[in-house]
């Protein structure tokens, strides 16, 4: 799992997620935050990870926002999941990713995707960089 991140790394993660959705300037990022649920969800996820060992007040606020938006759209990406820069969630619903999974940089994940651990000793899925996961795909085990 990645070490705790600095504020500059948090900003880089958030900017890379917004860049993947075509949001490059401040106005577009602000509009994207309020119009695109997947960007908002990723923003909350990155902030929960950042504040996890720093500030409990902000940690619980972002954790609540992260979980409530996830419940609304049927998306579960635990904060333990190791996610690289520039995650792109396409058609934001029905996504489940196990907490032990690793996702590389610049990955696209579509709707109705499950990335989970096998019940046996096969381990957790590891996705490399620049991966596209099509709608309905189930990736199970190492």
Report helical residue fraction.
40-55%
Based on DSSP secondary structure assignment, what is the total number of beta strands?
9
Overall geometry: globular
The fraction of residues assigned to DSSP E strands is 5-15%
Tally of domains: 1
How do the helices and strands line up, and which of them pair or pack?
Elements lengths: L6 H14 L5 H10 L1 H15 L4 H18 L8 E2 L4 E2 L6 E2 L4 E2 L4 E2 L4 E3 L9 E2 L4 E2 L4 E3 L2
Parallel strand pairs: 1-4, 2-5, 3-6, 4-7, 5-8, 6-9
Helix pairs in contact: 1-3, 2-3, 3-4
Describe the structure.
The chain has 142 residues and is an alpha/beta fold. The protein is built from 4 helices and 9 strands; from the N terminus they run H-H-H-H-E-E-E-E-E-E-E-E-E. The strands form 3 sheets. The chain has a 3-stranded parallel sheet, with no helix packed on it. Strands 2-5-8 form a 3-stranded parallel sheet, with no helix packed on it. It has a 3-stranded parallel sheet with strand order 3-6-9, with no helix packed on it. Helix 1 runs antiparallel to helix 3 (37-51), helix 2 packs across helix 3 and helix 3 runs antiparallel to helix 4 (56-73). The two termini are 16 Å apart.
């Amino acid at each position: 799992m990645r070490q705790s991140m600095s504020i500059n790394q948090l900003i880089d993660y958030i900017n890379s997620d917004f860049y993947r959705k075509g949001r490059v300037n401040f106005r577009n990022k602000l509009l994207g935050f309020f119009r695109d649920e997947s960007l908002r969800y990723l923003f909350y996820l990155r902030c929960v990870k950042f504040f996890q060992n720093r500030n409990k007040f902000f940690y619980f606020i972002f954790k609540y926002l992260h979980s409530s938006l996830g419940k609304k759209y049927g998306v579960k990406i635990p904060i333990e999941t190791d996610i690289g820069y520039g995650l792109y969630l396409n058609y934001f619903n029905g996504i489940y990713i196990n907490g032990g999974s690793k996702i590389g940089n610049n990955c696209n994940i579509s709707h109705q995707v499950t990335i989970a651990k096998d019940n046996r000793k096969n381990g957790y899925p590891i996705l490399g960089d620049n991966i596209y996961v099509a709608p309905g795909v189930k990736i199970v085990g190492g």
